[in-house]
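# step 3/5: fold
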Amino acid sequence: MDESSSYETGDHVAIFADNEKEHVEALAKRLNLDLDMWISMKDSDGMAPFPCPCTVREVLTRHLDINAAPRRAMLVALAEMRSRPRIRSD
């Protein structure tokens, strides 16, 4: 934390580590994904699981833990979004 930040008992600090570049590229290759493709996702409630729009690279690097088993909520959200694909090319 920098000097302008303060921490008091009961405060929470979150640290989000990026996934390794090599792991991101290997996963994208295996899934045949274009890492530079821009995406935007929302579930049926209009909520996005991560900041949108962003690139596939950003999602795999900063917003998903690609080294852990996915949580049920993430699988449900992805399945819901996949069932109604909206691909837009500009």
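# step 4/5: annotate
The chain has one domain: 1-90.
# step 5/5: archive (pending)
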